[in-house]
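Researcher: Good morning. I'm working through a list of sequences from a screen, and I'd like to move beyond sequence-only analysis. For each chain I'm collecting a predicted structure so we can compare shapes side by side. This is the next one on the list. No need for commentary yet; just the structure.
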Amino acid sequence: MTEGSVRLERDSMGEMEVPADAYYGASTQRAIGNFPISRLRLPGRLITALGDIKREAALVNAELGLLPQDLARAIAAAADEVSQRRFDSQFVVDIFQTGSGTSSNMNANEVIANRALELLGGARGERDRVHPNDHVNLGQSSNDVFPSAIHLAALAALRDELVPGLEELAVSLGRQRDRLWGVIKTGRTHLQDATPIRLGQEFEGYRSQVDRALGRLDGARLQLAELALGGTAVGTGIGTHPEFAARVIARLAPRYDPGLRETSDHFQAQSSLDAVVFTSGTVRGAALALHKIAADLRLLSFGPRAGVAELSLPEVQPGSSIMPGKVNPVICESALMVVAQVLGDDATVAFCGADGSLLELNVMLPVAAHNLLEEIELLGRASSNLARRAVNGLLATERGPRLLEEGLAICTALVPAIGYDAAAAIAHEAHRSGRTVRQVALERSSIPALELDRLLDPERMVQPTLEVAGSG
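Model: Good morning. Structure tokens for this chain:
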């Protein structure tokens, strides 16, 4: 029934006016009024996951003889359009809503039901013909669908955003490792001069950090591949066919993960956010690896004349509105700000896992989903951007090798020959007098010049012999 620019739809609580051109119905309209909190709406990947679940659920329910074939096909076609993001504008419920995600699940049910009605030649709102609960939501509850959709969306985001971004960064760092392997410079611990290191060894450390972060994400994917679907309201599976969940999940697996499976314990799957918290923590670990890399690149490039300036980062934009010629490490700064956002997102997810898990259901699902997907996608893009706009084009300057000869920590190589105290005295004298360790050692030790050259050879110090390595 249409009246001007609105139409009347109904749900179990009665009639509601909804916009005449809307695909959502009365339950969604109630949620719009109940949650005028923010401008944040359901993430696109979560909409896709809901559409995928509803599509496969309709087809499985037809296989099980629970839905007529024509009705199931129409629901599946409508759900597929939702999955393809054709109806994103119709997902209008605020993220800060009912903690189970029921409002968004009903938003999906109503959009799919009304679109299916159109495909069948009917009019929106004809609940007797296609019902959002009885037909689209058949065999399901918000309490098992929404956490399952979070897992699917996170799996897709890891696969499509974060893993490729980190892999690109690892390749970029590995390429620079090879290019910079011949550059030997001063190592630093406590931000003070330490024994020599290859610049390539530093970059191998960065690459290895990223590689290990990727390995930990494999563990997160294993956690996310376990779905709550089939538990319905409280984990008992009331109202669903015993084969429903396994069949739906088997159909979803090719799109998301070959290891996708029904949980072995529905009660924990619906009453906790443990897998989501674990995944978020793993993403946080990857973010901290990115922080280490971006912060080191910024530190090693600071100057260019009054600082370390052992690296030269690509110049991508002017750095000051008042200081001509100034160029800042803006790509590193951008990455570091993403890390700050990821840490905040992770803290929110952790709180949702702790405070939202009450009895048989976690009731902070929508905001946990929003933050988890945001941190995954931001970190993936920041990793790729750091690789493309900073790491790929950076260069080593001549300052690293030059400062090495002027450094004091190279006296460590003298310890096997003259002992710790004598080597320390040489270092202190070199520092006090402004001379090099080599110059002071020639004067104050009995080491012949040729032997001193051998001991202070930087190549020898970055790959020390067993004698040198074992004596200090």
